[in-house]
């Protein structure tokens, strides 16, 4: 089994990363709440590469504090678990 490690660092990285998750979610039929609403088996074929599924499909990544609020309030902000937001001073 292969996995991809996706790390977002800094303001630019987090802004690009937030857009990345929007695109990946759309490609896999995942709505902004993390629920699958797709219509193709191909969308679910490799979904575990980017998402784990405790209850809904949730991306995993780190964020820096300056852009956390903008990511959380963005269109896909609900799909991030609060304990996956990691930052330091």
UniProtKB/TrEMBL annotation:
Tubulin/FtsZ GTPase domain residues: 3-88
Keywords: Cytoplasm
GO molecular function terms listed in the Swiss-Prot or TrEMBL record: GTP binding
Localization per record: Cytoplasm
Predominant location: cytoplasm
Top-level lineage group: Eukaryota
Cell membrane found in the keyword field: no
InterPro entries, sorted: Beta-tubulin_BS (IPR013838), Tubulin/FtsZ_GTPase_sf (IPR036525), Tubulin_FtsZ_GTPase (IPR003008)
GO annotations of cellular component type: cytoplasm
Protein name: Tubulin/FtsZ GTPase domain-containing protein
Species per Swiss-Prot/TrEMBL record: Sinocyclocheilus anshuiensis
């Amino acid at each position: 089994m292969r996995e991809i490690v996706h790390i977002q660092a800094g303001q630019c990285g987090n802004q690009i990363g937030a857009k990345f998750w929007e695109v990946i979610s759309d490609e896999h039929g995942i709505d902004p709440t993390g629920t699958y609403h797709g219509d193709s088996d191909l969308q679910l074929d490799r979904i575990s590469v980017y998402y784990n599924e405790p209850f809904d499909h949730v991306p995993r990544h780190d964020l820096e504090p300056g852009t956390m609020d903008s990511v959380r309030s963005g269109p896909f902000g609900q799909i991030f678990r609060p304990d996956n937001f990691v930052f330091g001073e």
